[in-house]
């Protein structure tokens, strides 16, 4: 657990195979009102990732806080992982991000240059895995993140579907019917 510059406590749960393998950073869903790693949105994903031979970390990110708090938490999580990579037995190369619902929005946002990885001076994720992800900043998740009177520029920046280009990481997105 580490407190970042916006005052939120960043908590990571490692699910490790070690062996200097890449990792997937998982963002559970919760509509930016909560962050639920239980059920299918966190621990279940991490267990499957471990079975496939990769490391996983589940991030408890800021909720009920406006932008950029959750992205600050992703940055802090990556700093924690990098600081402890030898202890965890992970490599920073080829990491992936994964999220469900609002967590999928956070993962997709991290993959954009303007507000994500490049803005924070981090390496681009090798891939994004998005489960029933919110891909724009409208609806209830967006209103929590954007605040009461967001500018159109902020709404655009926080709508990953409007910021995908040829250099966006390979992405697998799915929804349940």
List keywords for this structure.
177 residues; alpha/beta; 29% helix; globular
Overview of the structural elements:
This protein has 177 residues and is of the alpha/beta class. It is globular and about 45 Å long. It starts with a strand and ends with a strand. 29% of the residues lie in helices and 19% in strands. The model has no long low-confidence stretch (mean pLDDT 90). The protein has a 7-stranded mixed sheet, with helices on both faces.
Q: Give the strand order, joined by hyphens, for the main sheet.
A: 1-2-4-3-5-6-7
Radius of gyration: 15 Å
Helix and strand pattern: EEEHEHHEHEHHE
Q: In total, how many beta strands?
A: 7
Helix content: 25-40%
Net shape: globular
How far apart are the termini?
A: 36 Å
Poorly predicted runs are none
Average of the residue pLDDT scores: 90
Strand content: 15-25%
Major sheet summary line = 7 strands, mixed
Helix- and strand-based class?
alpha/beta
Q: Please, how many helices?
A: 6
Task: Write a short abstract of this structure.
The protein is α/β, with parallel strands linked by helices and 177 residues long. The chain has helices spanning 43-51, 69-83, 85-88, 102-110, 139-146, 152-157; strands at 2-3, 9-15, 23-27, 55-60, 96-100, 127-131, 171-174.
